[in-house]
Amino acid sequence: MPASRPQASKGMQSRQWATTRSHKGLGNTSTATKLPLIEGMTAKATLPRSMVAQNRRARHDYDVIDTYEAGIVLVGSEVKSFREGKVNLRDSFARVQDGELWIHGMHVSPYLHASAFGTVDPDRPRKLLLHRREINELGRETQHAPLTLVPLSAYFKDGRAKVELALARGRKDYDKRRAIAAREADLEAKRAMSARRR
Known about the structure:
Elements: E1 17-23, E2 30-36, E3 49-54, H1 58-61, E4 62-72, H2 78-83, E5 87-88, E6 93-97, E7 100-104, E8 107-108, E9 126-129, H3 132-144, E10 148-157, E11 160-170, H4 173-197
Antiparallel strand pairs: 1-2, 3-10, 4-9, 4-11, 5-8, 6-7, 7-9, 10-11
């Protein structure tokens, strides 16, 4: 008589797991976290963004050629100010300096409840985090062409502060007028189609 197979205990029952890796700080250390796979969801599911600030003027003043998602290094109480949405990107820009990527002109209002030791210059340059290959690419693009790096938005993703950065070309006045005219024409066409459906 063949021997029966031992039954798996509840703690040993089969279960699928997804492993995700997260990098902390600027070092190379990483931690692996096991998460159960939910039916219908893959391990590479798109994570939602929690918007902090947007640079609406940027898309009016620039033609966006490409966009990049960069991490940003925050210190002291800046993270709390970020979470409260006290960020202004209106006059900000980014630049590759000595092989590193920095954002300038981004205003982060001081956190009201921070101690004197936790406050920093609200307009200080802040380091952006990208892969080395991407930083080198952006350095070449902005050095040999009339292109600039413009922050489009700041947000939280998976609990980490991020900046959406655009490689862009500045528009001349007639380009801006043409873009406005095209946008208004598009709105008029949508209104006309909506009126016909009624």
